[in-house]
Design brief:
Helix content is 41%, strand content 20%. The chain is built from 18 helices and 18 strands. The strands form four sheets. Strands 1-5-6-13-12-11-7-10 form an eight-stranded mixed β-sheet, sandwiched between helices. A five-stranded mixed β-sheet has the order 15-14-16-17-18. α13 links the parallel β14 and β15. α6 runs antiparallel to α7. The radius of gyration is 30 Å and the shape is elongated.
């Protein structure tokens, strides 16, 4: 027999919790992303790129050597073991999965392979303001083209993409550097060779924070380390003052044309530094020949890209207009995407050289930028026309269903009211909360006469402020007209067009 306590104990309610670093997406955000992706896709298609899709999971060893060495590779990525005890991870980016796809299908792929894809990537990192563990990227890549003309084209395509999205010249710049040059600088200060690989990676990640922390913050990360506002300490690269000074000089170059000779001298005698300078000079010449001046595509030694797999030119798309941050400060919006040459990523599957270059756009961040500029959501989706349910007998319900299907089949968003409330006023309140432009009404009298009432909810809301007397309101039947059932679709279309014209005039 159950005790009193057992009888009275209620089942524990499950708490609804969104995991940290993840977000639910609203209808408005989804539509904004779709609008933006369609514009990006149109540019990529015009350049001759084709879509491809890879899965969210990859075997962990396929994701790249930037992952930490540990029994369970759970730093930076979300991982689990398959039923055959192989480690699998949610993809960290879209580039490493593409490298696996190319290698696995190498005999069927036509080189150069020019492809694009959009999808979610996952980072098992500490979440923070504007920093999420799941976010969308949109990538374009060329695999099988060794010449830096492929890198130059990638930069030009990014510039065209920014403008296709409505970002004016002067509000963006594509910044270009070369990892060979940076590796030459590192070699020149004594960080060449495999034994210094970890130190080089720490230096690269420090320089990549230049926009975020400024020269002084990078100086700390290149030296002993830096403590952030929360008190967390990031260990530095441990370089001496002379080494730090040369790196900060290199990343501080602002006029490449004036500094290219000095840069060549700095990396003279290194393994690939001189080659990198020549590649930058070639890219600069190619983009200038095509009409892309330095205000659109600029050689900038401060561009690093944090991932270790880049082997040549690297690029960053930066938005240069000011926004207000969480502290109320005016700051430059900054990077919305980047990429570079990664000749070793496909090659490690193949045992033969396979050159590749690509660019990745941060979709959520770019969407935020476009919203700041008022470039998204200009054409709001019209809420559905609501067909009210006045009578609930089977014949009446069938008529209401016919009305709503006729509207839908004519390309008009429509829904039949499906709530539990029978009160007509509550149905109109529902339509109003939905932002519906029109309500369709047919009671017994209208049905007997073969007509329907169409209530203009937008006009009715406007007039409600002008008519104060309830009697006048009822007699006026504000913004409501009667039409034959056969004219329903045509009249609805006409009224929606009139509302659209009013919105245009208002704007």
């Amino acid at each position: 027999m159950l005790s009193m306590n057992e009888k009275q104990k209620k089942p524990q309610k499950l708490k609804a919790r969104l995991p940290r670093g993840f977000v639910d997406r609203s209808a408005a955000d989804i539509r904004a992303v779709d609008e933006m992706i369609a514009k990006i896709q149109e540019v990529y298609e015009r350049y001759g790129f084709d879509p491809v899709e890879t899965p969210l999971f990859e075997y962990t060893d396929a994701l790249g050597k930037f992952l930490p060495d540990s029994d369970r590779p759970n730093e930076g990525v979300f991982s689990l073991t398959d039923d055959d005890d192989q480690w699998m991870s949610l993809r960290y980016d879209l580039t490493a999965p593409l490298a696996r796809h190319v290698a696995e299908n190498f005999n069927e792929i036509q080189l150069p392979y020019r492809t694009y894809r959009a999808g979610y990537v996952f980072r098992n990192e500490k979440p923070g303001p504007g920093r999420f563990r799941q976010f969308m990227q949109f990538d374009a890549d060329t695999v099988g083209a060794a010449g830096v003309q492929a890198d130059a084209e990638m930069c030009m395509m990014m510039a065209d993409t920014m403008e296709a999205l409505g970002i004016a010249r002067g509000d963006y710049v594509i910044r270009v550097n070369n990892r060979k040059v940076l590796d030459g600088v590192l070699e020149a200060i004594g960080l060449g060779g495999d034994e210094h690989a970890n130190a080089r990676l720490t230096v690269l990640r420090a320089i990549d924070k230049l926009d975020k922390f400024g020269p002084e913050g990078v100086r700390l990360l290149l030296g002993e380390g830096r403590k952030d506002e929360s008190g967390d300490f990031t260990k530095g690269a441990g370089l001496n003052d002379g080494q730090i000074r040369k790196i900060l000089f290199f990343v501080g170059i602002t006029d490449y044309a004036k500094s290219s000779a000095e840069l060549a001298e700095l990396v003279a005698g290194t393994t690939k530094g001189g080659e990198g300078v020549e590649e930058l000079n070639t890219i600069r010449s190619l983009v200038l020949s095509a009409g892309y001046e330095a205000d659109r595509i600029k050689i900038d030694p401060s561009v690093v890209r944090g991932l270790e797999y880049y082997t040549g030119p690297v690029f960053e798309a930066e938005l240069q207009f000011a926004v207000t941050n969480e502290k109320g400060e005016k700051v430059v919006f900054g990077s919305v995407g980047g990429g570079g040459r990664y000749d070793g990523l496909v090659s490690r599957f193949m045992g033969q050289p396979v050159p590749a270059t690509g660019f990745s756009i941060g979709v959520s961040r770019l969407m935020t930028a476009l919203k700041n500029l008022g470039k998204l959501g200009a054409e709001d989706v019209i809420a559905p026309v609501v067909v009210c349910v006045m009578d609930r007998d089977l014949e009446s319900m069938g008529r209401y269903q016919r009305f709503v299907q006729e509207l839908r089949h004519s390309g008009i968003r429509a829904e039949m009211y499906q709530g539990n409330k029978k009160n007509f006023g509550d149905q109109l309140k529902y339509a109003d909360r939905r932002g519906s432009p029109l309500a369709i009404i047919q009671g017994g009298d209208e049905r007997a006469s073969g007509v329907v009432q169409i209530k203009d909810l937008i006009e009715g809301k406007r007039l409600s402020g002008e008519i104060q007397d309830n009697v006048t309101w009822r007699e006026a039947r504000v913004a409501q007209i009667s039409v034959p059932e056969s004219d329903l679709v045509e009249k609805v279309r006409e009224m929606l067009a009139a509302q659209a014209e009013d919105r245009t005039k208002a704007n």
